[in-house]
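User: Could you go from structure to sequence for me? I need the amino acid at each position, not a summary. Structure tokens:
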């Protein structure tokens, strides 16, 4: 049985909701084991044990969230040259555009020699004031559907051997 690992960090709930939707979509594939771990809990062994990945992070101050960056810092060298060619996708919850967080994850994934199998799925909340930025995030049904579709596609690709 192949494993899809979803690594998530979320402070205000939006990214977590996106990751949970991706997990629900992936869980429809009976031949795939789906693991959703917080960035703080995920370890190099979890990365090595997975066959594909979804990285889910908010964009904070035009960058990958610190906790997600710490996950990459902590696991990068222990798995380097041991996960080459594995597929990945990303979910980003952003207040404005999310592009810099996507760029950072792409660079890390390039170093790991991972293979992107989908464009970054970015949900913009338009939170621009301190109050809106710190408020709990609600993600619309349409965006959650896109996240579920991404999870389902990742799981189907793993199960069928496409990825």
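Assistant: Here is the amino acid at each position, in order:
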């Amino acid at each position: 049985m192949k494993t899809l690992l979803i690594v998530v960090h979320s402070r205000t709930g939006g990214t977590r909701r996106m990751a949970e939707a991706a997990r629900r979509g992936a869980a429809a594939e009976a031949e795939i084991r789906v693991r959703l771990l917080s960035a703080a809990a995920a370890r190099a062994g979890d990365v090595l044990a997975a066959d594909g990945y979804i990285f889910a992070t908010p964009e904070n101050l035009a960058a990958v969230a610190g906790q997600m960056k710490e996950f990459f810092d902590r696991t990068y060298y222990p798995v380097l040259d041991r996960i080459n060619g594995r597929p990945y996708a990303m979910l980003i919850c952003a207040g404005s555009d999310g592009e810099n967080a996507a760029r950072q994850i792409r660079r890390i994934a390039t170093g790991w020699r991972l293979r992107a199998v989908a464009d970054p799925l970015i949900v913009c909340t338009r939170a621009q004031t301190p109050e809106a930025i710190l408020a709990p995030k609600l993600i619309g049904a349409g965006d959650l559907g896109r996240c579920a579709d991404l999870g389902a596609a990742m799981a189907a690709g793993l199960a069928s051997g496409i990825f």
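One structural detail worth keeping in mind: The two ends are 14 Å apart (CA to CA).
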